[in-house]
Structures are given as C-alpha cells and as structure tokens.
Amino acid sequence: MATKSQPSVPKSKNPSSVSHGTAESQGQWGRAWEVDWFSLGSVIFLLLFAPFIVYYFIMACDQYSCSLMAPVVDIVTGRAHLSDIWAKTPPVTKKAAQLYAVWVTFQVVLYSLLPDFCHKFLPGYVGGVQEGAVTPAGAVNKYEINGLQAWLITHLLWFANAHLLFWFSPTIIFDNWIPLLWCTNVLGYAVSTFAMIKGYLFPTNAKDCKFTGNVFYNYMMGIEFNPRIGKWFDFKLFFNGRPGIVAWTLINLSFAAKQQELYGRVTNSMILVNILQAIYVLDFFWNETWYLKTIDICHDHFGWYLGWGDCVWLPYLYTLQGLYLVYHPVQLSTPHAVGVLLLGLLGYYVFRMANHQKDLFRRTDGRCLIWGQKPRVIECSYVSADGQKHHSKLLVSGFWGVARHLNYTGDLMGSLAYCLACGGGHLLPYFYVIYMTILLTHRCLRDEHRCANKYGRDWERYTAAVPYRLLPGVF
C-alpha cells in the first residue's frame, strides 16, 4: 500500500536512469489501460479483504494478546463465534471522531497554510516551492515542501503537552486505537471515492487521466495522476506523507507512554523501535523534495490503493511492533539490543547512501565521484511519447554496481531490525518485514518491466553488467 506502502511506507527511488525532462510513453506510466482477469481478481480481493486484514491484526492484540492463531482456533473449535469477537470490539466513539477530525484538520492547515521556513535555517535541507517530475501529459507540477516543518511542529506540541500543558494523556492514541480505526476507514474510503468522482467529472488535468472501463480497477488504482484542489493541495503528496507518516512516530510515542503506565518502565526494545522508525520517518521528510521523483509520485495514480492505504494500512500495520510491545514488553539482552541497533543503522546507511549516489549521479549528469572514482555508466537511449529519441545513462558504480535495487535491500534490513527488536515470541510483529519483502520485490519487478520496455537492448546490457536485483549472488 503505501508506502506506504504503502500501504504505502517511506518508498525507495527508481534506480533506472538519468532522464532529461521528457515524459515516457503513456503505456509505461503507473497503471494499466486494460485489465486482465487476474488483475481484476486481485483488485476485488484487496477491496473486500484488506480492511478485514487490518481489523484482524488489531483485534488479535486487543482480544487475544497478539496471537494470530488463537482467534482461528477459537472459531474452528466453537469456543467463540464471529459475533462474539465483534461484540467485544470497541465501536467508534464521539471522542475518537473528534480527535481524528482535529488531527486531520491540523495537518491540512500545516500543509496548506504554512509556507516552509525550515529551508531558510537548516543547512542542506531543500524545502519550499519545488518542481515535480514531468507527468505523462507533459505537465510539471509545483509543490510546497513543508513536511519536515509539519513533523517538527506536531512533535514539539506533543512534547509540550506531555511535560507542560497536560491537555491530554500521552496514551490517548493507544486508548482510542480501535475507535480511531473506524475513523481512518471513513476518511480512506471518502477520499478514494471523491478522487474517482473527481476523475470522471472535474479532473485537474484530463490528459493525465486513465480509464479502463472497469469501475473496480479505476476505483482502486485511481484515474487522476495528480488530483488537486486549488493550486497547492495535492492529494497524492498530502496523503502519502500526511497525516499517516507524521502520525507514525506519535503512535509509537503513545505506545511507549502506555508501556510506562502499565509496567512502570519503557523497555529497551520499545526504545529501539521508536528510535529506528523515527530515523526512517525523519529521513522521509528531510528528503521530501527527492520523494517527488519516486515511483509513488512519478508513476502511480491516486485511488483507493494510495488513499485508503495511507489513511489505514500504513498507520495501523506499520506500527505493529510498538503495539505488540505494549502487550508483551520485551527487555532485550545487551548483545541482542546492540545487534538490532547495528542492523537497523546499517540498513539505513545502505538505503540512504544508495539513494544519495543515484541522486548525485542524476544531479551532476554523471560528473561526480562515487566511492572515490569516476562512475561507470551504460549509455542508452529511449523514445518518448512524442516520437523523439533521447539519451540517458544507467549507473553501474557504487551500490548500484552491487545490485540493481540495493536501496530496497537496505530498506528490508531496517524492516527486519524493527521486528527483531520484539524477540521471537509471536509472528505478529514480523508481518512488517514479510509484507515489505513482498511489496519491494513486486515493485522491483514492476520497475524493471517498465525499464525493459523503455530501454530495450540497452536494459539487457545493464542487467548483464549488474546481474542481481536485491541480494548479490542470490536474487
């Protein structure tokens, strides 16, 4: 999903090329023009069952102490019925609805009404008004990059409340976790439905729309490429980054506060999860301008996949480690804790440096040093939608000479570290690394299929020079 995904989670950059400002053939962008039966079946399955998957994980923690098998065993053996489980599930409450409405409104205000000032005093940070990539129709959208500012303001207010203002308990998110789930679903479905109606009736750019004739696929994968309200409110950038990812670290802090309340201390495993995931979230917002050139913004249309995924899937399933540690506080041995920390930091280093090398290579058109040497490249060409031939370069030095998507490998190392911090008592906290492995492998194959279509024989030369995708010597 998102990032995250989704959903859609902070995502990694397309490592395929240094492009020179021209859109690719529309058939290679984002989603399909036509839908085969397998794709349609997958879409319908996700539309029907993804919300229940999220509910099942959260319910398992609430009613079965995070055991994924216990609910199934109870139902199969007759010790419980679905109606019994549902009856014990907290409903939506007025408090949760008000809390979520205030939260989303606050993030909209920070996104839309407060121009970025962080870039004026933070060396190296790029914020303010920035241009995105060229869309399939040839448009270049402008964005107000202020995600880091929104994250900082939100968290400063959170800590001010926890230590000075005392407007609400720091455990407020955990205490309303299931009622809030219903609120996030309402927003996810509302924004996805609005995006589809808007795509049909009043699109921002009709030339950047795709229609398949299948309403289910259109709803899930989106019609509009960059739906917007007014000049600045971009649905894709807002929902990919806010409110879900800003909330990610707040959710973890609330889980830590609940652990402190229940057990009188915060375990080192909870601290590790908070630190490692906060590094990842901060990296996302520090590099939000770079994010404009990733697959989420450059190739995905905005539909239920992103809208619901960023509202529900990301904040609820990407935070399972912290939720699990509330129910099962784990105090790691010093060697175990150090190992988890080093794995997480190494994964982040690989992820960030691989992306930095690609970004440096792109910005300088190859006139740079990578690992102290002039980068090796494969010269290639492609034909754009207007029939013109363009030249590009594929990097085969540094991390990009080790594997074609080593940034994804670093991402997966970090994902594994979050899970290992929870010990080995239950499967539930390991869902994240399993899901991310599937997501990034699929994204890797999808990206390579697009690049193979774009570059043809030049792509074959590239894969011969860098034969492995994620794990050198294995895959």
UniProtKB/TrEMBL annotation:
It is a multi-pass membrane protein. GO terms for cellular component: endoplasmic reticulum membrane; nuclear outer membrane. The chain crosses the membrane at residues 37-58, 148-168, 180-201, 302-320, 332-351, 415-440. Residues 1-23 are annotated as: Disordered. It is found in: Endoplasmic reticulum membrane. One of its GO terms (biological process) is cholesterol biosynthetic process via lathosterol. Pathway: Steroid biosynthesis; cholesterol biosynthesis. Coiled coil: none annotated. GO terms for molecular function: 7-dehydrocholesterol reductase activity; cholesterol-5,6-oxide hydrolase activity. Its EC number is 1.3.1.21. Keywords: Cholesterol biosynthesis, Cholesterol metabolism, Endoplasmic reticulum, Lipid biosynthesis, Lipid metabolism, Membrane, NADP, Oxidoreductase, Steroid biosynthesis, Steroid metabolism, Sterol biosynthesis, Sterol metabolism, Transmembrane, Transmembrane helix. It catalyses: cholesterol + NADP(+) = 7-dehydrocholesterol + NADPH + H(+); 5,6beta-epoxy-5beta-cholestan-3beta-ol + H2O = 5alpha-cholestane-3beta,5,6beta-triol; 5,6alpha-epoxy-5alpha-cholestan-3beta-ol + H2O = 5alpha-cholestane-3beta,5,6beta-triol; 7-dehydrodesmosterol + NADPH + H(+) = desmosterol + NADP(+). Its main location: endoplasmic reticulum. Interacts with DHCR24; this interaction regulates DHCR7 activity. Interacts with TMEM147. Catalyzes the last step of the cholesterol synthesis pathway, which transforms cholesta-5,7-dien-3beta-ol (7-dehydrocholesterol,7-DHC) into cholesterol by reducing the C7-C8 double bond of its sterol core. Can also metabolize cholesta-5,7,24-trien-3beta-ol (7-dehydrodemosterol, 7-DHD) to desmosterol, which is then metabolized by the Delta(24)-sterol reductase (DHCR24) to cholesterol. This is 7-dehydrocholesterol reductase. It comes from Loxodonta africana (African elephant). The lineage of its organism: Eukaryota, Metazoa, Chordata, Craniata, Vertebrata.
